[in-house]
Every structure is written in C-alpha cells, then in structure tokens.
Amino acid sequence: PSGTIVGTIKRSKTSDTLNIEEMVSYYKGNSIPTSHIHMFDPENVSLACNIFKELNKFAKAEYKGDAEVSVIQQIIQLGLDREELRDEIYVQIMRQVTRNPSPLQIENLWLLMCLIVVAFPTSKSLYKYFVTFLNDNVNTEGKIQQYVQ
Fold this sequence. Notes:
With about 150 residues, the protein is an all-alpha fold.
C-alpha cells in the first residue's frame, strides 16, 4: 500500500517488499525515500528523510564539537515544533539501533534517544511498542544498559 512502511521500503533494485524483521532493523543506507510513518504533510515527509541523513551522520560520529551539538538540537527542535515528526524520530532511532553492527553508532544513537525522551514523548499509539523495545534492550551490557534504564 502506498504511504505505509510496507509500501515505501523496498529492497534496492528489486520489487520485493521487506519482511517485518527487516523493516525494524538497522538500515545501512544513508538515506530513505520517504518517512517510516505515514504523514499528511509532504514537508514533514521531506524533513523526515533529512532527519534520517543527519541521524546517520551523527551516529557515525561525522560531526565534531559545535556541529554535533547543532545536529542534536535541530533534530530535537523539529520534534518539538512538529508533533507529526516525533514518532518518526523515535522509529528511526529504534530501527538504527536494532541489529546495528557498530558499537559506536549504537552508543551514539542511545545517547540521542535519551535526549529525545526528555524532550518529547511518543504518541499513545507508539508508546506500547516503545516500552517493549526498551524492555527488550534492558539486559544490554555496559553504557547502553544505563541509557535504557
């Protein structure tokens, strides 16, 4: 279906739709063709795609110093200003944390998740999934366990 995660996330160069596990797992690409969540405002869809690019650069530690702080502030500010983007930001972070092979990226994304949680809540419809996601990660070792708690 058009406008849904199933309809928009495809395997590259094939028309096969991703299975559920692939949809919620780390995506190694640097950009997405559309938002993960259906949005009514086309501008928010475009912003969601840009957030994904910035989120990945942040996760890979491509930003240093003030640039890193600026990206974090921009992502959080977009969530504060545009309620429709909030769940999209949560979903992007959850997806990029899940089965990500890079410990650095995982740590950076969990740090960002902690800042997002303090800045704004999930919607009621995402809340239950988010709590399950946290519970599934509560036994992770090291710093990540502190972030989850």
